[in-house]
Amino acid sequence: MSLDRLYLDLLDEAPVAPPPGGRARLLATAAARRRPAADCVSWARPYAGRVAAMDAVFASATAWDVEIVEGWHLQELLGHLTAKDGLVAAAVGAPVHGPPITDDEAMARTAALHAHERSRSLLETRRSWRDQADALCHALAGADPARVITAGGLRLPVGDQILGRALETWIHTHDTAVSEGLNLPRPTAAELRPMADLCARLLPMTALLSGLDAGDRSVRLTLTGDGGGDWHIPLLPTKRAAGYEGQEVALSIRADAAEYCFVLGGRGAGHEWEAEGDPALAADLRAAAPVLSGP
Amino acid sequence: MDDHLFHRRVVSGDESALGELYDRFSALLYGLALKVTRDRVAAEDITQEVFATFWERPLGFDPSRGSLRTFLATVAHRRSVDHVRSEERRRVGALAPRLFERPHDLEEGVVAADEVERVREAVVGLPESLRQVIELAYYGGRTYREVAVEIGVPEGTAKSRIRLALRRLAETLNEEAP
């Protein structure tokens, strides 16, 4: 590195403005090489950004036949993402790519997409996946993020469904980057914050689904780093999480925002939470947290 | 804005981040490419290509390993040198196809090693007082201030010696360069 620095210092004496028009030419060339994030409503931007990031990892990927996760190689992983994006697309009335949906269930739809993509090239699958994701983004222009819909058996407001797609796309992008030996940067704070908020609000549901009876108690969740924040989370599913305002709690949890999201996404082995308060509740919540993560 | 944030924005497909990077670094890259190639069209193409490649495959850059400025400038420099060499090969090749034949695909590492060797020779050729500051600053990774303390001269003197040494090196390397 020091030699590079020396060489550059030798050459870096005279910046020269390039001919005019270069910026516009660059943006046109760049967009043709890798599509920019889809233009979409602000609450869908974390999803559009994670889709663009997956595309960036794809652009550097070389081991196309290697199993990445769930026994799937890159084409099957993209088929899976297309399948689940398609179920949400159908639920919001957006165009659905691939064969018609026969069963609103993630694994059945994944199998249908795998069968459909098998005879196609990886680059064709990449284009279909990206077209599906961008079509979903564009269709959200007039959508109400608070409207509750069912997609893949999951009943949530449209806004949360899209954040769920962002989270899953991020996690599989991370899986691919790890498999390729690439260093995936964390999302920008603007993208991460809404995903962290979704994961904070999902904590009571993970406890409930794990059969944990936490009673009428609440937790303070402090997520650190860019995109973090401070939440007050009642564990009774009938109550709503909100910003922490000094309430008394049974437990305080502290974790890095990205790592916390990864724990809920089932990629948290080895990430421990700093906990203060009821140690048994802390252990139970940590064990229950990945319950919503599936393929 | 720091390199990490630029990198994250580009990975997230934020075109405006690429535009801002162009505004910030295009004159550096174009000036650098122009100096090496002495060809305005080639320099403009190289500048465009460096940014476009960074956009297409942003994970080729790892902010924990160095600054974005150095990364982009290093890629621009390599491409410029490649351009000059292929032009040379083309010219020489027309005159004496067999005499100067070189391996077709020089590995990047080989090119880099060649450059490193040229710089090293130029450094060795410097007068002792200048060689000392360059070796401490670049090979030893010292800051200007640390160099000044180490050789017992005022900070301003260390700075001006380094600047003089860089100018001498630039002259030597430019004489050798095409």
From TrEMBL, chain A:
One of its GO terms (molecular function) is metal ion binding. InterPro entries: DinB/YfiT-like, MDMPI_metal-binding. Residues 69-175 form the Mycothiol-dependent maleylpyruvate isomerase metal-binding domain. This is Mycothiol-dependent maleylpyruvate isomerase metal-binding domain-containing protein.
From TrEMBL, chain B:
Pfam families: Sigma70_r2, Sigma70_r4_2. CDD domains: Sigma70_r4. SUPFAM superfamilies: Sigma2 domain of RNA polymerase sigma factors (SSF88946), Sigma3 and sigma4 domains of RNA polymerase sigma factors (SSF88659). GO terms for molecular function: DNA binding; sigma factor activity. Residues 21-89 form the RNA polymerase sigma-70 region domain. Belongs to the sigma-70 factor family. ECF subfamily. The keyword Nucleotide-binding does not apply. This is Sigma-70 family RNA polymerase sigma factor. InterPro entries: RNA_pol_sigma-70-like, RNA_pol_sigma-70_dom, RNA_pol_sigma70_r2, RNA_pol_sigma70_r4_t2, RNA_pol_sigma_r2, RNA_pol_sigma_r3/r4-like, WH-like_DNA-bd_sf. GO terms for biological process: DNA-templated transcription initiation. Coiled coil: none annotated. Residues 117-169 form the RNA polymerase sigma factor 70 region 4 type domain. Keywords: Sigma factor, Transcription, Transcription regulation. The keyword Transcription applies. NCBIfam families: sigma70-ECF.
